[in-house]
TrEMBL record:
Keywords: Acetylation, Allosteric enzyme, ATP-binding, Cytoplasm, Glycolysis, Glycoprotein, Kinase, Magnesium, Metal-binding, Nucleotide-binding, Phosphoprotein, Transferase. Residues 406-788 are annotated as: C-terminal regulatory PFK domain 2. The keyword Hydrolase does not apply. The gene is PFKP. Belongs to the phosphofructokinase type A (PFKA) family. ATP-dependent PFK group I subfamily. Eukaryotic two domain clade "E" sub-subfamily. Belongs to the phosphofructokinase type A (PFKA) family. ATP-dependent PFK group I subfamily. Eukaryotic two domain clade 'E' sub-subfamily. One of its GO terms (biological process) is fructose 1,6-bisphosphate metabolic process. It comes from Stegastes partitus. This is ATP-dependent 6-phosphofructokinase. Substrate binds at S167, I168, D169, R204, M211, G212, R213, E267, R295, H301, V302, Q303, R304. It is found in: Cytoplasm. Homo- and heterotetramers. ATP binds at G28, R91, C92, G121, D122, G123, S124. The active site is at D169.
Length: 788
């Protein structure tokens, strides 16, 4: 287990004593804003600052009075799972005027507020920066008017601003994901999945309009996640004559036995002449040219509503804590910053650099520099567009390269949601690269039994939204049957292997690497893509399937907590999966607002359990009505779920009663989340491109011969980048007994959960405090963004 590093900096050195922080939400609402507000309030109170709500955004700041209220710990209870923003949001014309900002400054100074945390879009953040720049002048005017004392100018000389981007459109440059985007994608995909069943029944074409007046992110990513036939976005209008091409594509898909067509349109979609492309225009076009039964569905504000996803809760909680740390560290000379996400790292960027870059995108679109607009959106957006084109539009046979290589793809280990999206991506990218693709059923068990068959482009249609493993998967390792597997490799002339799976897949590649010494058949490029709900594969911060499992845990915890509303005080003990890896318990606990999460990586004893019970008892007496405790299934042999349940029941007698739930295999089932669909699609496409490169490099004298360490790799996400790592090099980073990596990034999030549950703890801020620049080429710009 990882030991604390003595070089780490802990935030006990940072004090908020004497400081006042105000938090407001402005502009359009987005799911996850409440989680951000909750994190700002609790972190602010934790460091000793006074924290204020500003209700109704900038309008509340201008109006003052009851709109600016001091926040307490209890005032943000039970808001983590609520969509929208409970402190209200409003667009304020008055704040755009000098007089309005003067009123706002007066209201803040009266309460001693000089630290503002603004959650909103680029307009809200630009307004905040202007307010900051005018601050000293506004105070001077207030002194002249006699509204404030002269010493107030010195006392409140600087206004500090930190922004968090809350926008479902993901239209802000400098961050991979904005708060609310993932939840909006959940709403869209839920609707698309539902529509697909009725469309298939009646052989219909559906035209769906999604939000995105100036940004096509939601349309593009949802098209990638559901395998839509056609997508129209404002950043990349279709070429002239697109109508005919689209109808040909729809007709070809129907001829290939596909019973439905899905077309996704961003509300701001335009053609090359800047003329709007409407859903009705597309419907009339399809009916007129093809005679297909066609329906239009406009999703509208459904996308803004509903409960936030696990991703948005975690993102918002992390950003909220980071925002408070940024405010504590700021000086009069520090520029206003925005807290952003890069890969799975939180970073701080100068606010106006991000705003200017965002405005550059719109300027490029207005001037019809569409290629540049796509590039300015960032490498993630560009990669999404490229991947969609690659997977949705099959090239004619005459245009495909002819490699004459055979590539096998198989699933190994337990099923994980998103595996099928990864297989679909691998098959279609492989065919586009000119390879012949083979599917192996039931993992290595099916491999040695010869359950291998060629898989074509159309065979994987509609796979992205399917849960589990359509190929079939087993935990069987290859070592016992290595001779038979080598024989099958020879019979089918397999030149490369793509293995999609969990820890068993990692062990399998190590065994096949060892077998190279005896069997030349394994001297071929081999790559593994991590897919397991446990997220316990060394060499990767994230695995396909883990996000879907987190959403299952979060949704279930919400329902379980709600079941106790209106009853007496109650604590729920919830057991999660994960083997010895505490990822699901820890990160699920953060997303669900748990009071404690017991895991193997952080050892605990009876004294810790007793302290947790006492802490919860104290909270129950004063404020909260419901408590939530998560336990990883293998966290301790003796402190079982039953033991913890009985301990809490006994020690909490008279204050609260207890219930226990074992979530079990529901964490493995269900349709994959948008994140897992897209992560699986993009990481698998990258793996196939690596295979093509390695096949080219290792093809000599009429055969493929690859026996170096770098031809047997795991493709994983490391901090901000997707990295190919030789599996043999990962052996030193692995605890093989407990099947977990020796170091795990998410352990840094555990103090976050404890702080937000009112525990006194240390929080490692060694990764914080570095103000970066959005204009500099950051790792994100080299295809690091796999967040979506």
């Amino acid at each position: 287990m990882a030991q604390p590093d003595s070089k780490k900096i802990f935030f006990e050195n940072l004090s908020g004593a004497g400081k006042a922080i105000a938090v407001l939400t402005s502009g359009g609402d987005a799911q996850g804003m409440n989680a951000a507000v909750r994190a700002v309030v609790r972190m602010g109170l934790y460091v000793g600052a006074k924290v204020y709500f500003i209700h109704e955004g900038y309008q509340g700041m201008v109006d003052g009075g009851e709109n600016i209220r001091e926040a307490t710990w209890e005032s943000v209870s039970s808001m983590l799972q609520v969509g929208g923003t409970v402190i209200g949001s409003a667009r304020c014309k008055e704040f755009r005027s000098h007089e309005g900002r003067l009123k706002a400054a007066h209201n803040l100074v009266q309460r001693g507020i000089t630290n503002l945390c603004v959650i909103g879009g680029d307009g809200s953040l630009t307004g905040a920066n202007l307010f900051r720049e005018e601050w000293s002048g506004l105070l001077g005017e207030l002194v002249e008017q006699g509204a404030i004392e002269e010493d107030s100018v010195q006392k409140y000389s600087a206004l500090h601003i930190v922004g968090m981007v809350g926008s479902i459109d993901n239209d802000f440059c400098g961050t991979d994901m904005t708060i609310g985007t993932d939840s909006a994608l959940h709403r869209i995909i839920e609707v698309v999945d539902a529509i697909m069943t009725t469309a298939q029944s009646h052989q219909r074409t559906f035209v769906l309009e999604v939000m995105g007046r100036h940004c096509g992110y939601l349309a593009l990513v949802s098209a990638l996640a559901c395998g839509a036939d056609w997508v129209l976005i404002p950043e990349m209008p279709p070429e002239d004559g697109w109508e005919e091409k689209m109808c040909q594509k729809l007709s070809a898909n129907r001829a290939g036995m596909k019973r439905l067509n899905i077309i996704i349109v961003a509300e701001g979609a335009i053609d090359r002449s800047n003329k709007a492309i409407t859903t009705d225009y597309i419907k009339d076009l399809v009916v007129k040219c093809l005679g297909f039964d066609t329906r239009v569905t406009i999703l509208g504000h459904v996308q803004r509503g509903g409960t936030p996803s696990a991703f948005d809760r975690i993102l918002a909680s992390r950003m909220g804590v980071e925002a408070v740390l940024a405010l504590l560290e700021t000086t009069a000379n520090t520029p206003a910053c925005v807290v952003s996400l890069c890969g799975n790292q939180s970073v701080r960027l100068p606010l106006m650099e991000c705003v200017q870059m965002t405005q550059e995108v719109q300027k490029a679109m207005d001037q019809k520099r569409f290629e540049e607009a796509v590039k300015l959106r960032g490498r993630s957006f560009e990669n999404n567009l490229r991947t969609y084109k690659l997977l949705a539009h099959r090239k004619p046979e005459s245009e495909l390269p002819t490699s004459n290589f055979n590539v096998a793809v198989l699933n190994v280990g337990a099923p994980a949601a998103g595996m099928n999206a990864a297989v679909r991506s691998a098959v279609r990218v492989g065919i586009s690269e000119g390879h012949k693709m083979f599917a192996v059923s039931d993992g290595f068990e099916g491999f040695y039994k010869g359950q291998i068959k060629e898989i074509k482009w159309a065979d994987v249609g509609g796979w992205t939204g399917q849960g589990g493993s359509l190929l079939g998967t087993k935990r069987t390792l290859p070592a016992k049957h290595v001779d038979k597997i080598a024989e099958q490799m020879r019979m089918h002339n397999i030149n490369a292997l793509l293995v999609i799976g969990g820890f068993e897949a990692f062990l399998s590649l190590l065994e096949l690497l060892t077998a190279r010494g005896k069997y030349d058949e394994f001297c071929v490029p081999m790559v593994m893509v991590p897919a397991t709900v446990s997220n316990n594969v060394p060499g990767s911060d994230l695995s396909i399937g883990a996000d879907t499992a987190l959403n299952a845990i979060t949704t279930t915890c919400d329902r379980i907590k709600q079941s106790a509303s209106g009853t007496k005080r109650r604590v729920f003990i919830i057991e999660t999966m994960g083997g010895y890896c505490g990822y699901l318990a820890s990160v699920g606990g953060l997303a669900a607002g748990a009071d404690a999460a017991y895991i193997y990586e952080e050892s605990f004893d009876i004294r810790d359990l007793q302290a947790n019970v006492e802490h919860l008892t104290e909270k129950m007496k004063t404020s909260i009505q419901r408590g939530l405790v998560l336990r990883n299934e293998n966290c301790n042999d003796n402190y079982t779920t039953d033991f913890i349940y009985q301990l809490y029941s006994e020690e909490g007698r008279g204050v609260f009663d207890c219930r226990k739930n074992v979530l079990g295999h529901m964490q493995q089932g269900g349709a994959p989340s948008p994140f897992d669909r897209n992560f699986g699609t993009k990481i698998s496409a990258k793996a196939m491109q690596w295979i093509t490169k390695k096949l080219s490099e290792t093809f000599r004298q009429g055969r493929v011969f690859a026996n170096s360490e770098d031809t047997c790799c795991l493709l994983g996400m490391r901090r901000r980048a997707l990295v190919f790592q030789p599996v043999v090099q990962l052996k030193g980073e692995t605890d093989f007994v407990h099947r977990i990596p020796q170091e795990q990034w998410w352990l840094k999030l555990r103090p976050l959960m404890k702080i937000l549950a009112k525990y006194k703890t240390s929080y490692d801020v060694s990764d914080s405090g570095q103000l970066e620049h959005v204009l500099r080429t950051r790792p994100k710009e080299s295809d690091a963004s796999v967040a979506m």
